[in-house]
Amino acid sequence: MLLKRPEEAFVNQPAIDRQWQILHYADRPVLEKAVLEHRGFSALLESLGVDTHYLPRDDSVGLDSIYVRDASVVCDRGVVLCRMGKDARETEPESQREFLQELGWPIAGAIRGEGRLEGGDVVWLGPKKLAVGLGYRTNAEGIRQFSEILGDTIDELLTVPLPHWRGPDDVFHLMSILSPLDHDLALVYAPLLPAVFRAELLASGLELVDVPDGEFETMACNVLAVAPRQCVALAGNPETRRRLEAAGVVVHEYGGDDISVKGAGGPTCLTRPLTRDPV
């Protein structure tokens, strides 16, 4: 997986103080706390067998670059560089390009022009099937270009219209309401899941675990599968954890007030999966 340390994304406390309100963070991150939280998060991933790579500092990007999921998508042809729906993040895809190429990943293509696509809106439902959220961060032109780049590497792309929810300044992606846990299991927040899409998920054989209303705002639906039915989740959502464990999922928690809660970016946002071992 690709990650980025707070020391490289946040840089220093004055940089945080200049940016956090402009970027609509819920509160001011504290660099020292963020560094300790991210070390714990990274150590947890490594203890679970994850190979980690860390993006270097790049002064062309800001605080949000810690959320590495959104600037790129990986497919069988290589890396697709996104075009961000949040203007303040527009330099992040190019910032990832060189590092990913150094890791040996070819660039399959890039979203250009009027297209918008963010990685948090892309959910793989199978090796050749994916869903893409259509909302404030990803638009129809971005999805069209993305589909062209993928070509025959996929069999099906589902476009999922997303709700207004809290408006264009909020952090809302398809992965805010859907996190795959296994080939036949996913965590969802049903009240914001389009009815037609929910029916499609059920028809495809997926069992759905529902996040309770009281835990959606604390990012209970944002969990990272590191193996079939084994996930990393932000601490503080006990009922969601109970429901996951009842479905046979092993849950590993981390503390993330300064790397996750304040910037509304959970474990999926903090990581860009590159490859997975076959199971």
Task: Describe the protein.
By secondary structure, the protein is an alpha/beta fold. 28% of the residues lie in helices and 22% in strands. The strands form five sheets. It has a three-stranded mixed beta sheet, with helices on both faces. A three-stranded mixed beta sheet has the order 6-7-8, with helices on one face. Strands 9-10-11 form a three-stranded mixed beta sheet, covered by helices on one side. The longest helix has 17 residues, at 31-47.
Kindly list the characteristics that best describe this protein.
alpha/beta; 22% strand; globular
Which helices and strands occur, and which strands form pairs?
Elements (H helix, E strand, L loop, with lengths): L1 E2 L2 H4 L3 H7 L11 H17 L5 E2 L17 E4 L2 E4 L10 H11 L4 E4 L11 E5 L2 E6 L5 H11 L5 E6 L16 E5 L2 E4 L6 H9 L3 E4 L2 H4 L6 E5 L2 E5 L3 H9 L3 E5 L2 H5 L18
Parallel strand pairs: 1-2, 4-5, 7-8, 10-11, 13-14
Antiparallel strand pairs: 3-4, 6-7, 9-10, 12-13
Question: Mean of residue pLDDT?
Answer: 96
Alpha-beta content class: alpha/beta
Give the biggest beta sheet. 3 strands, mixed
**Spans with pLDDT under 50 lasting ≥5 residues?**
none
The helix count comes to 9
For the record, give the distance between the C-alpha atoms at the N and C termini, rounded to a whole number: 17 Å
Dominant shape: globular
- Proportion in helices: 25-40%
User: What's the alpha carbon Rg, rounded to whole Å?
Assistant: 17 Å
